[in-house]
Amino acid sequence: MATVQSSADKKTVGMITEKDADGFVYTLIGGIRFYTCTGAPDHTTGVKGSLCVRTDTGKIYIDNDGAGDWKIVTSA
Q1: Which comes out higher in pLDDT, residue 19 or 46?
Q2: Residue 58: what are its φ and ψ, rounded to 5°?
Q3: Is-above-0.90 flag for pTM?
Q4: Is 68 exposed, middle or buried (0-12, 13-18, 19+ CB in 10 A)?
Q5: Domain count of the chain?
Q6: Residues 2-30: pLDDT tens digits?
Q7: Is residue 2 in some structural domain?
Q8: CA nearest 45: which of 10, 15, 3, 12?
Q9: 70 located within any domain
Q10: Is 8 helix (H, G, I), strand (E, B) or coil?
Q11: Domain-located, residue 1
Q12: What is the dihedral angle through the alpha carbons of 50, 51, 52, 58, rounded to the nearest 10 degrees?
C-alpha cells in the first residue's frame, strides 16, 4: 500500500509545517521530519532518520536511508 495522507494529516502548526517534494506534510524538528500517514510509508523524499506515525494502526516507522527504505520501529 502506498503512503497516503488524510485531511487530518495535513493540519499545520504555525510556520513549522512544510511539504516535501511529494506533497507530504511534515513538521521539522532539528533536521528530522515528522510525518503522519495512513498506510506504510514508501515515499522517497524523506530525510534519513525521519519518523512517520501511521494514524490507522499506531505503528511508527523510521526512514532508514532517505530513499524509501522505511523500517518499523514499534507497533501499538
Answers
A1: 19
A2: 85, 0
A3: no
A4: middle
A5: 1
A6: 677 666 555 554 445 678 888 888 888 77
A7: no
A8: 3
A9: yes
A10: helix
A11: no
A12: 170
